[in-house]
Amino acid sequence: PTFLRPKRRKSPCVRGTWRTKTTTLMKRVAASVLALVAAPSLALAEVEVGGIAGLHVFSEKSDLGVPDGANAEDIESLKNSAIFGLRLGVYFAKDSIGVEAEAGIIPTEPRMLVFDVYSIAYRGSLVYQLRAADPTNRILPFVLAGAGQITIFNSLNKDVVEESGVLAIHAGVGAKYRAANDWGVRLDFRGLQVWG
């Protein structure tokens, strides 16, 4: 006998509410990144590899994704959302000065309408850690500054939010906790200035 699979009905994309494929992808990406983040940052000698999980706050006045020639009343800014990603850091001068590269996915949607928008943020930073030379210090405060880009790579309604990118510089402060066996966790806060 021949088994027929029922045809999957595609809901009409009313205001971009059809989310089956992208929601599943978002859940898989989030689960994978959370598995990496659950294990704190691995620190081997002067190289650190770690996961990123946090909150990305979008400005209501940002030009990210705004179509060219859009009327002021039609402009849709993006909702604040989570960011999930990876970070690589290399440290010099007794682990006090370092450079970091990171990339993360930001699954979001516009503030007023409902459809999926996916952004990627990638940036490089120069980091200065305090108290890093003494391996018995468990808490290391740090400052960082750098630049990168935030790019919308997938929008389900390009007439409202187009796929585009903006340059972003950032600066911030944070603290790193050195745990046993070359593991650690860190918390940092950053301010971003974007140009698009």
Describe this entry's structure for a reader:
By secondary structure, this protein is mainly beta. It has an 8-stranded antiparallel barrel with strand order 1-2-3-4-5-6-7-8. Strand 7 and strand 8 form a beta hairpin. It starts with 19 loop residues before the first helix and ends with a strand.
Name some characteristics of this structure:
eight-stranded antiparallel barrel, 8 strands, mainly beta, 10% helix, 1 helix, disordered N terminus, 48% strand, 196 residues
Number of strands: 8
Tell me the series of helices and strands, N- to C-terminal.
HEEEEEEEE
Largest sheet: 8 strands, antiparallel, barrel
The low-confidence runs, each spanning 5 or more residues with pLDDT under 50, are 1-23, 33-45
User: What overall form do the CA principal axes indicate?
Assistant: elongated
User: Strand order within the widest sheet?
Assistant: 1-2-3-4-5-6-7-8
> In percent terms, what proportion of residues is strand?
over 45%
Rg, Cα atoms, Å: 20 Å
Mean pLDDT: 80
Percent of residues in helical segments? under 10%
Total of helices: 1
Structural class: mainly beta
Distance between the termini: 59 Å
